[in-house]
Amino acid sequence: MKLYNTLSRSIENFKPIDEKQVRMYTCGPTVYNYAHVGNLRTYIHEDILEKTLRYIGYPVKRVMNITDVGHLESDADEGEDKMLKGAKRENKTVWEIAQHYTDAFFSDIEKLNIKKADVVAKATDYIEEYIEFIKGLESKGYTYMANGNVYFDITKVKDYTKLSGMNLDELRTASREDVHVDVHKKNPQDFVLWFTKSKFENQAMKWESPWGVGYPGWHIECSVISLKNLGEQMDIHCGGVDHIPVHHTNEIAQTESYTGKSWVKYWWHGEFLIDNNGKMSKSSGEFLTLSLIEKKGFKPLSYRYFVLNSHYRKQLAFTYDSLASAENAYLKLKSRIKTIKDNSKDDKEKNIEAAEKYRDDFKKCLEDDLNTANAITVLFEMLKSDDINNVQKLDLAADFDRVLSLDLLKDDQCQVHDELAEYIEEMIQKRQEAKKNKNYQLADSIRAELLEKGIMLEDTRQGVNWKKIN
Prior knowledge:
By secondary structure, the protein is of the alpha/beta class. The chain folds into three domains: 2-270, Rossmann fold, CATH 3.40.50; 290-404, no CATH class; 414-468, no CATH class. Helix content is 45%, strand content 15%. It is built from 15 helices and 16 strands. A five-stranded parallel beta sheet has the order 5-4-3-10-11, sandwiched between helices. The relative contact order is 0.12. Mean pLDDT is 89; it is low at 72-81.
């Protein structure tokens, strides 16, 4: 297994600390709103990572946090009180908002066939542990008090920028905290461990502490939750690339200062989902959620298929046209498997050697830094092969789906697709005959009729292709 390690900025051979169990941590959602499909892309690839490790024989324990505290009343980007605004809009408390969007997140990942983490930890359940952690850092001289808040002093850490490779000026630019300059910091990159006073008034979530009534800073929860559930050292820490310069950098600084040990062996980061304007986020353009994609007529697993045809370390451009093309390809794949199922009782003898070659090729793609696009190519090649019989094809498809999780052998979406495809092909044939007879008015009317039904035709040198659109 080869995996890219952000810490070394290179692809490394994966070797866990303990062969008996891979310890893995994934940064979870901040539950003040629905999950953006860009965030869900990262969770899909993390799911592939965990399932690949299990597929090749490693036991895995994965922990995920739920951020339901800290910067909940505002996401801090523009200083807008989004959490309180949402609570008022929905006539709920911030606690109810947190629970509502936590439930919505788990509904989304279930639709996307993302395995739930072995341990799901809410930030609000670890307040006492945060206090003990801060007291430990305080006793070692890593903290200072200013304006009632407890800060971590980054100058006490020699290799503070080792994960990002940035200098402090670059980090200052990358930090979202720079939008609101904190004049009480000794250094611009120092960060708050415990707030008793902050830029947000009327913070709803507060607890007693040795430093006063307040609430924990954002970075502390991942450190403490991982220490409590995975121990002082772990194999893999996952998250989006936007976490590298600040959040994960601060996690490393405080955790390794607390334990005196190297903390994470492999840092794994997923790239952005982008549109024509760059990174997609909750604050830019149409807020893309899984529910919105469903309302526009797409299947959740079509989005998973769309994501798996790209590499997690490459930015992925999202358009509804590209999603429509992915859904069409995905449903054709399902239809092909259904046809094989319907004809599974063939007379061809088993070719064990050829079947194992496909299994090995699939595994090698995953072991090559999770190359899911190539793994799907192997799947297609296997299904088209004349070397193995249909029973073997179904067995391999089921085996591959342990990782891909695309419901390949379920018939749920195939029948509708088959009927639709049959109708479209019939209309394409009529249009071709009309063009051959120079009846261009009829040909144009057929194209228009299909377009009204959300089907776009594309004339190519190889023939006519079609795809679903909004």
